[in-house]
Every structure is written in structure tokens, then in C-alpha cells.
């Protein structure tokens, strides 16, 4: 994928897209734009949800096409370019008719290849930027697939937005960031601009600063952040929207780091650290392979003795002792827990293959 990027800022300054979750009234839209112009003049795009995909019916579902002229006033009076979410062919043609500069597909649209294809067909050959938020569920293929559908429809100015993933585990976020997924997207599509939407990851104002900094440290190209003149009174996503003046403070505190330092000593030192990390990773893989071999042998032994795979008491002692050691060595409890659950699960799978299929001891 080789997208064109005239809509992006130069590598040194992140692109800022700011504006309310929803366009509620003409006054609210214009007041947000006025405050943004005053506090965050560096914002390039004014965002607003016009059609709102809501989880439950009966909530505010957006002002609809009526809001598009309000946005046009934002451009005329405050000079921002405009960004709107579209979810079907009708939204696409209305947005284009009203000259919306940047379009994006929301998380609830990216999950559905039929909807993505409908939007791609409606936008065929469109020259402006189209960004794709990650799907609600942590599925990189679905995210990439949506981008590919747009690319096949002749859209050249493509980009992605990371807005976190809905998961069942307990998490302090509204949508778990799962940073490895946007990183993997960057690895597989290195030329694709990638923005972060900390508002929908956080779900609450307090976590937004740390998420913005993390996104920049992962070399993301910009931020899409929800702002509202009176966030507590917002008609959607009230807990996560920021007043423009608060967003200004957050942005002022962000450190934009370089990809590399020019200093030789930095290069040498970094090379050294990377070699050690490579070495440790290789050892980890060897040790894990050795551990799985032992699990297979245990599987054969349990099979001969007709003993169950899961031995709860042993697992309980195991996880306890591993977590204790991990914490003593400064590793986070959650990390230790997830890691050992994964290893244990793999080990159980190995034993299951042996006990319930016909794998011979000779395969060990
Ligand atoms: C939004 O940007 O307001 C929105 C609905 O986001 P998402 O698609 O990420 O849930
Ligand atoms: Mn929102």
C-alpha cells in the first residue's frame, strides 16, 4: 500500500483533529470552533459526528444532514478543514456534496465488510483523505481489509485511526489500547499514516494526556481528540470530552521526540541494547520450546496413567509462585498473570493433543 499524504503535517508535528463527539446544535458547533481557534490554532481539522452509531436505541443519534451546513460555517468563519464519520453510501454522498474535506469510517463500520464495501463503492475515485478506525474487536485483518477495499476503489489518500478495542477482560480503559495491534499495522503497512484517538480509548478525561504521549512515542502521525465547550453537558461521550482550553494544556505538555538522535554514542549504545534484547528473545524462545517439550512428556505420562490434564492445585501453586517472583523482580502483576496464563494454555493444548489424539511418544 502506497498512500498519498498531502493531508498530513510534516513528520515533526503531529496532525491535530479536534471537535465534539457529536454536532448537537449550530450554536454548540460554532462555539466549539471559536474556542478551538482561540486555544488550538494548530488544529488542522474540525471533527464532528453527524450520524452517531449508538449502542442502544433511544440515545442521541446525531443531527443528521441538517448539521452539514453548520460545519460549512465552521470552515467559513474559523478556517478549519472539516472531518466527518460516514457509515453508508448516503452519508458518503451527502458529505461529498457538502464538501467535507476528510471522511472517516467508525469502529462499528469497519467491523462489517458489507458496509465498508458500500462506502468504498460510493466513494470510488474520491481524491480526498479517507481514514479507517480500527474495528471494535481486536482483529488486524478486518482493519487492513477495510483499507484494502478503499484502496481498490481508487482512494489514494488513506490513513488509519487507532481507537482501542473492546475486550472482555477488566481494564481501566473504555477500549483497551492493545498497542501491539497498531504497531503490527505499521509494520505491515509502513507507509500508511496512523493517528490515535485517545478519547475513545480512554473513555474518561483523566487518561487522555498519558495516551497522547504514548501515541507520539510510538511514532503515530497525529491525534483525533473530542472537545466540547461544556463536556459534562455533552449529548454523547460526556465523560471523555475536553474543554478546548484543557486540551491546549495537554498538547503544550506533550514531548515530540525524534525518531533518532544524531549522536554517535547514541547509535552505539542503542546497538548494544538491541543486541542484548535480541539475545534474550532467542533464549526465551528456546526456553519456551524446551518447556513445551516437557509438557508433551507430561501429557504422555498422564495419558498412560489416565490422569486429567488440568491439575487445579498445581496450577494454583504455580501461578502464585510465578507471580510472587515476577513482582519481586519488578514485573507488573497483570503482565505476569497474562504471560503465564498464555503459557499454561499452550501447555494444556499440547497435552490435549497427546491425550485425545494419536500422537506417539516418538514425536517428542
Ligand atoms: C466517534 O469518533 O465519535 C466515534 C463514534 O468513534 P468510534 O467509531 O471510534 O467508536
Ligand atoms: Mn465519541
Put the structure in a nutshell:
This protein is of the alpha/beta class and 364 residues long.
Q: Give the termini separation.
A: 42 Å
- Enumerate the distinct ligands: phosphoenolpyruvate, manganese (II) ion
Strand arrangement, major sheet? 1-2-3-4-5-6-7-8
Percentage beta strand: 5-15%
Radius of gyration: 25 Å
Structural domain count: 2
Q: What's the architecture of the largest domain in CATH terms?
A: Alpha-Beta Barrel
Q: Are there runs of 5+ residues with pLDDT below 50, and where?
A: none
Q: Give the helix/strand class.
A: alpha/beta
Oligomer: single chain
Largest sheet data: 8 strands, parallel, barrel
The first-level CATH class of the largest domain is given as Alpha Beta
Order of helices and strands: EHEHEHEHHEHEHEHHEHHHH
Question: How large is the count of helical segments?
Answer: 13
Percent in helix: 40-55%
Mean pLDDT figure: 93
What is the name of the CATH superfamily of the largest domain?
Aldolase class I
Shape label: elongated
